[in-house]
Fold:
Amino acid sequence: MRPFTYTRAKDPAAATQALAGNPTARFLAGGTNLIDLMKEDVERPTALVDITNLSLAEIKPITAGASKGGLSIGGLGKNTEAANHPLVRQHYPLLSQAILAGASGQIRNMATNGGNLLQRTRCPYFYEVSMPCNKRAPGSGCGALEGINRLHAIFGWSEKCVAVYPSDMAIALAALDAVVRVRTASGQERSIPFADFHRLPGNTPEQDTNLAHGELITAIDLPQNRFADRSYYLKVRDRASYAFALLSVAAALEVSETGNRIVQARIAMGGVAHKPWRALTAEKMLIGQEATPANFKRAADAEMAAAQPLEHNKFKVELGNRSIVLALQMALNGGKA
Amino acid sequence: MQDKNKLTGTPVSRIDGIAKVTGKAAYSTDYPVKNLAYAVLFKSTIAAGTIRSIDTAAAEKAPGVLAIITHQNAPKLNVDGGIRGGALLQSPEIEFHGQHIGLVVAETFEQARHAAHLISVTYDRKEPKADFEKLMKNASVPKDKDKADAKRGDVKAALREAEIKVEEVYETPIEHHHPLEPHATIAEWTGDRVTLYNSSQIVNGAQTAAAKTLNIKPEQVRIVTPYIGGGFGSKGGQWANLVLTAVAARQVNRPVKLALTRQQMVNSVGLRQRNHQKVSLAATKDGKLTALAHETTTHGAIKNEFIEPCGDCSKIMYDTPNSLITYRIVPMNVILPTYTRGPGKSTGSFALESAMDELAHKLKMDPIELRLKNEPERDPSNGKPWSSRTTVQCLQVGAKAFGWDRRKPEPGQNQQGNYLIGYGVSCGTYPAHQRPTSAIVKLKRTGNDVMATVELAAADLGTGTYTILAQTAADALGLPLNQVKVVIGDSDLPPAAGAVGSVGASSYANAVNDACQKITDELLARSGKQFFARPTASQLMLSEKLTDFQTRIDAKPLESAEEYSAHSFNANFAEVAVNRFTGMVRVNRFLAVTGAGTILNPKTARSQIIGGNIWGIGMALTEESVVDPRWGNFVTRSFADYHVPANLDIGAMEAIFIREDDQKANRMGIKGIGEVGIVGVAAAVANAIFNATGKRIRELPITPDKLL
Ligand SMILES: Cc1cc2nc3c(=O)[nH]c(=O)nc-3n(C[C@H](O)[C@H](O)[C@H](O)COP(=O)(O)OP(=O)(O)OC[C@H]3O[C@@H](n4cnc5c(N)ncnc54)[C@H](O)[C@@H]3O)c2cc1C
Structure:
């Protein structure tokens, strides 16, 4: 860890202004990711602007605008509160499940919703400064491309970077078509659809998201939906808790009131790409179909056919296939096996 | 040995428990030493080669920096003084990734850490030897005579003529000890004597190694280690960090604290090596073993060998006329491997006990029956009688308690919803020894109260040594528990065995008991009286109106113990549930039945056993340290990557002890429980997974991807 200054922002304007003038300043929220990375010498901010005092923690129904009827979750609310809030549990159980599948009780008590979206990859080559990593040190190469890449991407990677994005919460948010609300450095509001929030690595893996320096996440908006009775977050990992996903699937279904026909399907995958991976091919195939294991399997096959595994993660193709089927099945049964 | 009026054998809660949970127990870095300076290590970023240059200019100018020590300015140390793993800053040579190459000492920890980032190092890099898969082919006969080929009969012929055989290779990965308390030291010089507050499983061993390495006399080194936050072997031998703290303290002329980070633990304090084990079993159709071969290939460090004895269980577990145990080793650019809980036995039993399960399956025989059929009457490796052996009882008691009869013999037949359920069994063993240990007992009477203090340079790893010694002394002196004080963990006390190799309890408790008997004898003699029943030492202190009395003993193991083969034995039972879609495994239930002689305290003993079991479950399912062969670095450097079991991974744990009174092993009949708890566990889990799914996984850990 290197020396840095520490200040506390008193309001959102002060926070964004503090960062605007200093390209090496960072917001400090729960600190559960940023401080770890500073200790590892991966992040080297010269200034931390503590934003935990800003009153941006509220969870409230949205009464106007495009997401009217939905729910707004404060960017500085804690993960624990979001997961346990009665309105989240009732209307967005998928989000609640995904948050609770991540980290540990203690960490979720510290972690904020905005910070969660911006947590950085867990790629070991990113974490160890003596290793090459284009995300940490652009131009140094990708240690994982031909290295130990069991945990890495099977979709959307580039020669520059094969890292995966680690958040569980964000996988549910991707499936729920959330909208990230941001305050820009100049004090304007802007909304970013979730699908556009995170990026694929391409030639600039150092850029995880489309958030500009100094932009503050103020809230995450969840549009209204009819998935509450049929959604499920499946997380496959090397141990039962407190491990990042080998692969995860957030699945949500809306089926016709008469019979078993799929009206809407949402599938997002974690642990497979540099961003939450919406399984759009599978989703499209399911619409209008009967909700049967055979149709789930067909959709999963179609989605996973496009996977490009690396040397050590070939298993993720089969695992992704099975996990899509199981998650859809669990969603259909209201979360029960 | 169990007696209604005795404290030993009863589940007394830890006497140090309250101090620990209230934070009063001082671990190595907790000592309020005044005027402390802080040291931070910096480490090599290559695995093989030489340092060309170290530029410390910027770091020297950084705020608070007091000294920077590298091979260029370090004092001359004795590299053969007993510190393990090298890295003593004596040469520019690099033998493994993350080797210590220097130390920054500063006024604060933060300043030292910051300055360490400002140092730049250049190297002449060599291609590291880090790909075990490839290196294995060049493995050769070890130097260690204990690991020479051990042959009995003709294994080759027996395998050739076998009616049934199993010949398979079992792989276990590098593991790390990762005790909760990372290694840490405070060094404080007073004149030419240094006090080292440093977690040490072998108090006197740490003293000797530090002294020899620093080129001073043992009396000039004092080790203080009253509490240890786990060690599992990594705090048995001592590593460079201990001595470098002393060097730094001398250099800056004030006390220095050095604590390793979790990430630094992977290449500072040893590891459990990677083992490639081939097991061959030959048997008759009715399940009698005719041959057992266990051939292990492993790696050492570049300069030094270390081999955990994977073939040990195979030497003694089963009766077979033909036996072969071999080891081959190849140097690798990693830190020196070392003793790790259940050294050799935990990993070796995975291979042996998996192979036995495979044989039972081929024979269509219950795996318990197969083991019962091959129970040896004497130690097959040396012909000695057992001091006692409980394998049969462990299996029988365990089968009943676990409900083994509910197991479906054919794999894959027990499906419940999305899960496949399976049962597995295995056996294990660990040798029982007592080592020479001295102890002092002091009695002090105030009015009608007698207070006892027992003193010895023993170590409590967190396992309950304080408590069992207080129980032992209380019984032997006729005092209640709260009138006994146990003082350990200091090299100024009488020398004692280490808390290693499961010798702690037997060595310490026998010494304390002997000392208490001796003090009673001496008090009796002093009284000059004849008693109808032997009075206790505390009664004698009162009747003789003495205020202070003390004695010392140098306890030795029984000479007759040599005539017997003494071991703890266990049987492990696991029930697993495997998700048929995702391959995730959960151990629903685990039972260990253990015959380990006298159990001094069933409560702390249970903790020891289930602690070993839980690590064994980690070994089976989650733990693996992965090396990138291109750079020789570990890619699993933190608990986010190195997965020890978490609460949710562990189901119902049960421990049963078989009652034994084995006075052939030692006077108190204590056989030790520290290691045996992990032995056989991984095999029981792997065998249960086979029973659940029909998939035989011979490569640990059994992560979900292997079960798809
Ligand atoms: C041991 C461990 C295990 C974990 N396991 C999991 C897991 O299984 N699944 C999972 O999903 N996560 C896991 N996590 C990650 C955890 O969820 C994140 O660390 C946490 O959500 C980050 O939130 P924070 O508030 O602490 O962010 P911080 O560390 O404070 O910030 C992270 C980044 O976001 C920026 N930032 C924060 N808030 C804002 C804002 N409002 N606007 C703009 N920028 C902002 C910061 O500047 C920083 O760059 C784990 C973490 C640890 C330490």
About this structure: The radius of gyration of chain B is 26 Å. The first strand of chain B starts at residue 37 and ends at 43.
